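Run log, item B.
One chain of 83 residues. Sequence copied directly from the ordering sheet:
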Amino acid sequence: MRLIGGLRLSFWLCAVWAVVLYVFFVTLATIPPARVAGVTLVMTALAVLLTVRGIRLASELADPGGDPRIRRALNRQRERRGF
């Protein structure tokens, strides 16, 4: 009986997901690409900044003589998340 209940839940979750996805794409189709060009540029800039930050942080952590403040901040984040 648990298997049928799990399948029933999965079916309804997929049905809700399909409806939400349909509404999303219908809404997306009504927006002309020229109206979202600014948002695209801002998101691209944020993605580039995040990538540069990640590369810089990775190089700092790979260097054994790197900035100890960055190492302590990373350890603090890991401890807070439970790693």
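Observations after the first pass:
- The radius of gyration is 22 Å.
- Helices lie at 2-29, 37-62, 68-81.
Flagged for discussion on Thursday.
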